[in-house]
Design brief:
Length: about 270
């Protein structure tokens, strides 16, 4: 029995380095596989899917409370600096505008803002974006380039920052040639002006910290929400108090006055 126990212990002792070596090999294989998948699908660790047909496909995504987005290695999508329309609610058209409209001319080169992979190349005809491109980037952002006259890339193509991806145009719901440029994180639109300074042709900072917007338990918007949908009986003072802002700021952001009649279902920008 003593001899058998001794033999078993010797066998286990000799096997241990082999097990460690096998685990090391398995770990290296796994790491290599993860790197391959990450190169195939940028931001693989946070995005739940790779859809090549639609912009808005992340309704079931797990949104982190906070996420730091690296903005270094950028390229401005166009050399033009004039902003035709800003991010936010459009009172005149009664709908939200989820990007910036930058004045470009038909045929101007539009470039990828960061390294990434082309997720969508589509044409909405006379609706919405017209001819557009969606790119997912390694830093977690997705950028959208709308109203193009021509797309120069294909789905699943890898691109570098600064690489031409389309030509400026006037397709879709557009009243003049311009680039509609959006920045999104897991489908959530972020004001591009918080990251890009088109006038200076530079980024605002090396990083941007995304913070999750939280809903109150009663379903109303939290103080940090960007927009608020008007309910029956709401007044500007009630909305301002609920959203943690002021009536004057609400009026300025939405280009209204204190005498403006609010309509149920109307969306107001709050910050």
């Amino acid at each position: 029995m003593v001899s058998l126990n001794s033999f078993s212990q010797d066998l286990i002792a000799r096997q241990a380095p082999i097990d460690r070596k096998l685990k090391s090999v398995d770990s290296l294989v796994l790491q290599k596989q993860i790197r391959v998948e990450q190169s195939m699908y940028p931001a693989f660790d946070i995005y739940p899917s790779w859809n090549t047909t639609s912009v808005h496909v992340y309704g079931d995504a797990i949104i982190p409370d906070k996420y730091t987005i690296d903005l270094t290695g950028f390229c401005m999508p166009t050399e033009h600096t004039r902003i035709n329309d800003i991010f936010g609610y459009r009172p005149r058209r009664r709908r939200a505008h989820y990007g910036l409209d930058i004045k470009v001319y038909i045929g101007d080169t539009i470039r990828a803002a960061f390294d990434g992979k082309i997720r969508v190349v589509a044409n909405q005809g006379r609706r919405g974006y017209g001819k557009y491109v969606v790119i997912r980037h390694d830093n977690g952002l997705e950028t959208i380039y709308g109203h193009l006259s021509k797309q120069l890339v294909g789905v699943d193509q890898l691109v570098k920052a600064g690489e031409p991806i389309g030509l400026g145009g006037n397709t879709g719901r557009s009243t003049g040639s311009h680039l509609h440029f959006e920045t999104r994180f897991l489908g959530i639109a972020i004001d591009p002006a918080l990251m890009f300074d088109f006038e200076k042709q530079d980024i605002v900072a090396d990083t941007y910290t995304f913070e999750k917007k939280v809903k109150n338990t009663n379903g109303s918007a939290s103080r940090s929400d960007l927009f608020y949908k008007v309910k029956r009986g709401d007044t500007l003072s009630k909305i301002a108090a609920r959203q943690g802002t002021t009536v004057s700021k609400l009026c300025r952001l939405n280009r209204i006055t204190t005498k403006t009649v609010l309509r149920p279902g109307q969306v107001l920008r709050c910050s």
